[in-house]
Amino acid sequence: MQPLWLLAALLALGQALPFEQKGFWDFTLDDGLFMNDEEASGVDSTSGAPDLDSVTPTYSAMCPFGCHCHLRVVQCSDLGLKNVPKEISPDTTLLDLQNNDISELRKDDFKGLQHLYALVLVNNKISKIHEKAFSPLRKLQKLYISKNHLVEIPPSLPSSLVELRIHDNRIRKVPKGVFSGLRNMNCIEMGGNPLENSGFEPGAFDGLKLNYLRISEAKLTGIPKDLPETLNELHLDHNKIQAIELEDLLRYSKLYRLGLGHNQIRMIENGSLSFLPTLRELHLNNNKLSRVPAGLPDLKLLQVVYLHSNNITKVGVNDFCPMGFGVKRAYYNGISLFHNPVPYWEVQPATFRCVTDRLAIQFGNYKK
After folding, report:
1. pTM of the shown model
2. Are the beta carbons of 251 and 229 closer than 8 angstroms?
3. pLDDT score recorded for residue 157
4. Which of 2, 150, 205, 256 could form a disulfide with 280 if both were Cys (CB 3.0 to 4.6 A apart)?
């Protein structure tokens, strides 16, 4: 049962996103979403995910002391380890080293692990990584190195990497070129670092074709303007953003989910949301907005809007739905307005004429 528990835990980590998303961001071990041309043509790939269901037991006698090893899974978590253990089988695909006391990754710590697919180093004390520590990991796709003491993005990350979770460290700067060559990278979680807008050098994300990026719980005062234009999800919750200006979102026309909750946003300039034609979900809860943002009726695919816990005092009849014969391609299935000083009895029923169900609207519970 131990390997099954470990696999379940890894998948849970892979889905630890700020908002629920089923099926799209779940980079599971048998997922073919990011299949490259070689995989599609049947040619053996160096970066494909392993199919653990079809793995033949290796019966290798190599297993670090105190760890649990089965098939290609090596679990060495919660052992108080000071260093990466030796005697790890070369055919290992999943190595779990979370919740230990490892402070450094040395040059040969992962030597011979050319088949490793996922490496979990969460909640250690890592502050130093040798520039060639990850060199042997030519098939690594998942690197979870959150909750450590890193002050910079690790150098020379494997070109096969798809998902990087490096939140809750001490990173203040993202230099240009740090992600160079990572053409397969799809998801970066880097929240919980003391990053300011000035900490991102121009061109820091050059070459990346990310779908998902989270920089929550940082020190941002505005929306960064040099992030990958391929983004489908951008989460900037729990920062110090005060306004959304006209061209802040110009670059991000492919977004379908934008998280800006728990900031200090007082103003969203008219027309700024018009650059997001495919947006489906907008989180603006726990800010300082005094009115519903302009432009929501023009977002034909918008289905969920979180506006609770603001200072909104009035909701107009055309704040959410198109006027006249304007048609939304997707009706709302969630609008939250609770914890706002709105006199709800004055809101006209026609305000929500493009909502699927009355239960999709959340009102009330305002306290001064």
Report:
1. 0.83
2. yes
3. 95
4. 256
Q: Tell me, yes or no, whether 314 lies in a domain.
A: no
What pLDDT sits at residue 60? 56
Write down the pLDDT at residue 326.
Answer: 63
Give me the sign of the Cα torsion angle 220, 224, 230, 232.
Answer: positive
Q: First-to-last CA distance in the chain?
A: 52
310 within some domain: no
- The predicted pLDDT at position 13 comes to 47
- Give me the pLDDT at residue 324, please: 73
Find the domain containing 104 and state its range: 64-214
Distance from C-alpha of 180 to C-alpha of 11, rounded to nearest angstrom: 27
- Answer for the pair 268, 243: CB distance below 8 angstroms, yes or no: yes
- Hey, is 174 helix, strand or coil? strand
From the CB of residue 269, how many other CB atoms can be counted at a distance below 10 Å?
Answer: 15
Within a domain: residue 106?
yes
* 315 burial level (CB within 10 Å; 0-12, 13-18, 19+): buried
Q: Rounded to whole angstroms, how far apart are CA atoms 331 and 308?
A: 19
* pLDDT beneath 70: ranges in the chain: 1-61, 325-326, 365-368
Q: Please give the tally of structural domains in the chain.
A: 1
Looking up tokens 């494909």 gives: 48
Angstrom distance (rounded) from CA 353 to CA 316: 12
| 109 within domain boundaries | yes
The answer for residues whose C-beta is within 8 angstroms of residue 16's C-beta and 6 or more apart is 165, 189
Identify the DSSP state of 332: B
C-alpha span between 152 and 361 (Å, rounded): 43
CA dist 17 and 26 (Å) reads 10
